[in-house]
Each structure stands twice: as structure tokens, then as C-alpha cells.
Amino acid sequence: MKTRRRKFHRRVYWAILRRQKLRCACDCNVKLTRAEGYQFDHITALALGGADTPENLRAVRTPCHKRISTVDIGMIRKADRQGKAHRGDKKRRGRVMPSRPFDTRLRRRMDGRVEVRT
Ligand SMILES: [Zn+2]
After folding, report:
1. 48, 72 in Cβ contact below 8 A?
2. How far is the CA of 61 from the centre of ligand 1 (A)?
């Protein structure tokens, strides 16, 4: 799945960095450094319907970005699976459950007695 991402002006990226006080946007809160490297990540992945806007961007350290991307891929796959199941093109595993696995000539009463339908 290829998702096109917009390029923003340098000023936009700077605004994001300033918004985060130059710290990683994930829970680690470690200072972003050029030496370690950092990336701009979509808060909600584009593949999950996230907007390609500066508001949906955040800067994260390279190690954090890798971790977050892995989680995202899991969610994207899941969303994809659910979409498929919803559209009904998911491959069925095993046999179709018979809707009436019981003898339709017999009827069980609420008190447990079984009688033959007439
Ligand atoms: Zn982090």
C-alpha cells in the first residue's frame, strides 16, 4: 500500500519541533538530536485515514519512529483485514456451519419433552 505524503515548508517542520520543545513526541520525551536522527511521523497513519497536515505530524527519534511504525503496520493490517471481512471477501476457514444441524421433524418443549411434529 503506497501512501503519498505531502512535503511542507521548512518553517512548518520548525513549528512542529518548537511545539514539542525539541523533544520526542512519544512517551520517552528525550531531546531530539541531529546525531541520533529524527523523523516526522503521522500521528494517525495516512493508511488509517490520518490527514496529511502539519497538525497530524510530530517529530520522533529514529528508534522511537521504528517502534511506532511497527505498531502502525499492525493496525493497518488489522484495519485491512476488518475491511475485507466487512466486504465479505475474507476467505472462509473450514466448513460452513449448517444452520439446522438438528432433525426438523422433532420439537423440544420448554419442559424438555421431545415430541414429533404433526
Ligand atoms: Zn521517543
Report:
1. yes
2. 6
